[in-house]
Amino acid sequence: MLLKLVHLSQIVIAAYGAMQCQVAITKLLEYEDVTKKLAKISSEAERQLHKTRTTQAAGAIAILASFTASVLLITGGASYGNFVRYLASPIMALFVFATRVYLRDFWAGKGGKAVTANKVHLPNMEGYNEALERTQKSLEVLGWLTIGWTASSTLAFINGITYEDQNGQVRTWEGTRRPTRPKTSAVDAVQMLAVRELPTGAELLLEKQFRAPAGKLVIEFPAGLVDEGETVEEAALRELREETGYFGEVVHEQAGQRPMFFSCEYPNFVNYMH
């Protein structure tokens, strides 16, 4: 909920910033024809014209990108997957911060003064001075957006991984640790290749489960973790029973990685296969 509030505030701030950019660019365009003429005879005037265009465009793009990204994250963040969820905010924070520095260095200089300190007190320069005021506000907006994206980056990691299940419900994927299985344990998990012998032929036993990383139903082999005090064979038989409903017993054991052959009975409490 808090993360959505941050994104919502970014939408409002970015919308305000977009209005400031629009006015600033509109006012500066009033002086572009004169600047173009000067650029033909002065390399410095040409450089200033180029930087004016690129800095204003960069500021507008960063603000519009923040608005768009915030809308997308607040309306369907979980559906885009955890890669987008975790990386979108840090990337946007760096992008907006870099844009703010680029804009500030040209319009305010590196002395820390405000953009409005460069106002020109001459006739017919009111539009230019207003453009400076709007540019100063755009810088402030970019500063607030940088803070917002930094905060949302932190909150995304604190809130944990979320995913949308097969019913469209957003859930938090909870992780667990296994202190009962030290790193020195030879085997931590088992996976079974189970074949059912029928009069019509052999059938491979698979299961269908919803997996959060894939965001969809996945066909897979029965598998699971080895519990404390449990042998590999016991874990394999238990997981096979829990996930498919088949009971089995070890009839042959092989050295090395210990692949096993089981004798299985048809489950008497399951009338369908996943």
From TrEMBL:
InterPro entries: Nudix_hydrolase (IPR020476), NUDIX_hydrolase-like_dom_sf (IPR015797), NUDIX_hydrolase_CS (IPR020084), NUDIX_hydrolase_dom (IPR000086). Keywords: Hydrolase, Membrane, Signal, Transmembrane, Transmembrane helix. The keyword Ubl conjugation does not apply. It comes from Xylaria multiplex. One of its GO terms (biological process) is ribose phosphate metabolic process. Residues 185-274 form the Nudix hydrolase domain. This is Nudix hydrolase domain-containing protein. Belongs to the Nudix hydrolase family. One of its GO terms (molecular function) is ADP-ribose diphosphatase activity. Residues 1-17 form the signal peptide.
